[in-house]
């Protein structure tokens, strides 16, 4: 793996603790960077001393996991990690140290601590995703912000005549709602033609997805158009399916698509992420969903050899404009940067588990499949996709007798489960296009699915509570038509 050539990166040692007073007894006040955007190796005193090796952490116990997440509402079966993620208490404590450091002396924080701390976090992310250079990694608020950065660049290409009006941008039908709206707001408004890939659901194989994707590319190239951008989810949000991003990116290269942007909001900590192997031009993932950071923080990887990478700019313009996206993103005005600074503390937390983050995501996947199969068997239904197309989330069909007939029904049923049964789980409404085909596949009458998540704090009792709540509703003769309209 290539090492960063940045002088600042060479000066700073990558440690598992932030170099802030009160956390490191060997803290040195003189930091290698003084001021934002310097990054040139200049120092404000002698180089920082190398930290003493930290002793190995003891394996975490079930009781310690419960204590780390004791701030959760323990009366709720929280099987919806996918929406907002979760942050352990030890990381929240580290975040509070960073916040107090800023509030105690903001100027010292700004000049001495912020940029070295962000650089450490970016270096960790670089290694986690197998990026070739730290300058390819920027920290931003969330994947939606990263999408805005990429789509802003594409819209400028249309507006400035680099791309021709009517050229196509392809996205998945199940792309995240905010990203779909951003594509229309930035790209369609600038003259791009937006094409959605209709994905099958329930889905049984990657080949079904690949086939539909090829059809959309052919449509995008019709009448002499070019496909300028493909936006591909790594894990779709709702319904949740792991998409074969490497294969789709390869197809894009073969078919002459200019740029590929992978929206992987749910990816890091949930599936393997190797940006060199995937080979997209842009790749983003939230660190607060499945990687235990506090909300909100994400990374945007921009491939260094891509001609577009130097042209990316943060939508919030500061004095760092023009110095490269990593520095532009590192200062967008006075705000709380602590969620971006605690990545080393997250590494300490995940390394207490057998196998680190790889072990966590492997066990989470196995458990969510086990729980999904348990629910499907109990309800007499089925999974929305095979286990190999799932991550730490899985779709389980609800009994058809519940009568989920619209998105409003899905929201009202979700509220009922939350308020009456203390279960938090998203519900997806999906009416099969071909009702007769649905009957032949054994899917007759099924229009509602739950998306269950599994994270380290979950226990089997959480899923039993959902199972029993649905059983009670079915046995009581309930259907969504009985819910009051609002």
From TrEMBL:
Region (Disordered): 1-58
Residue intervals of the Aminotransferase class V domain: 121-303
Extent of Polar residues compositional bias: 1-19
Keyword line: Pyridoxal phosphate
Keyword Nucleotide-binding: no
InterPro entries tied to this protein: Aminotrans_V_dom
Name of the featured protein: Aminotransferase class V domain-containing protein
Organism: Zingiber officinale
Lineage: Eukaryota, Viridiplantae, Streptophyta, Embryophyta, Tracheophyta
């Amino acid at each position: 793996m290539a090492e960063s050539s940045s002088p600042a990166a060479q000066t700073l040692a990558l440690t598992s603790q932030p170099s802030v007073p009160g956390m490191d007894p060997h803290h040195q006040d003189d930091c290698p960077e003084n001021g934002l955007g310097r990054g040139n190796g200049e120092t404000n005193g002698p180089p920082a001393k190398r930290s003493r090796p930290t002793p190995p952490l003891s394996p975490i116990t079930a009781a310690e996991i419960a204590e780390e997440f004791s701030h959760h509402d323990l009366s709720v079966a929280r099987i919806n990690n996918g929406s907002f993620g979760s942050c352990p208490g030890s990381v929240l404590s580290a975040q509070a140290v960073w916040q107090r450091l800023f509030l105690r002396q903001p100027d010292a924080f700004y000049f001495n601590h912020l940029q070295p701390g962000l650089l450490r976090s970016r270096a960790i992310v670089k290694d986690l995703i197998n990026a070739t250079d730290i300058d390819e990694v920027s920290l931003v608020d969330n994947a939606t912000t990263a999408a805005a950065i990429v789509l802003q660049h594409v819209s400028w290409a249309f507006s400035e005549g680099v791309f021709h009006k009517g050229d196509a941008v392809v996205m998945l039908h199940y792309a995240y709602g905010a990203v779909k709206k951003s594509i229309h707001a930035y790209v369609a408004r600038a003259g791009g033609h937006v094409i959605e890939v209709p994905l099958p659901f329930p889905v049984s194989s990657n080949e079904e997805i690949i086939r539909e994707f090829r059809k959309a590319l052919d449509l995008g190239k019709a009448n002499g158009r070019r496909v300028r951008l493909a936006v591909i989810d790594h894990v779709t949000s709702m319904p949740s399916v792991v998409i074969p991003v490497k294969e789709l990116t390869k197809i894009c290269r073969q078919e002459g698509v200019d740029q590929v942007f992978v929206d992987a909001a749910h990816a890091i900590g949930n599936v393997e992420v190797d940006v060199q192997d995937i080979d997209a031009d842009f790749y983003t993932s939230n660190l607060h969903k499945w990687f235990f950071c506090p909300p909100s923080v994400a990374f945007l990887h921009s491939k260094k050899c891509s001609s577009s990478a130097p042209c990316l700019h943060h939508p919030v313009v500061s004095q760092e404009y023009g110095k490269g996206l990593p520095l532009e993103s590192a200062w967008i005005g006075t705000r709380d940067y602590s969620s971006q600074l605690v990545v080393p503390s997250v590494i300490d937390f995940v390394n207490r588990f057998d196998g680190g983050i790889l072990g966590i995501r492997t066990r989470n996947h196995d458990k969510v499949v086990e729980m999904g199969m348990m629910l499907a068997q109990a309800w007499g239904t089925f999974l929305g996709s095979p286990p190999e197309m799932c991550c730490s989330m899985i779709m389980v069909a609800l009994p058809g007798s519940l009568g989920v007939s619209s998105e409003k029904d899905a929201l009202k049923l979700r509220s009922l489960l939350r308020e009456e049964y203390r279960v938090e789980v998203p519900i997806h409404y999906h009416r099969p296009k071909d009702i007769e085909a649905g009957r032949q596949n054994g899917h007759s009458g099924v229009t509602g699915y739950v998306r269950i998540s599994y994270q380290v704090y979950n226990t089997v009792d959480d899923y039993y509570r959902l199972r029993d709540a649905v059983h009670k509703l079915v046995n009581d003769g309930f259907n969504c038509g009985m819910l009051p309209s609002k």
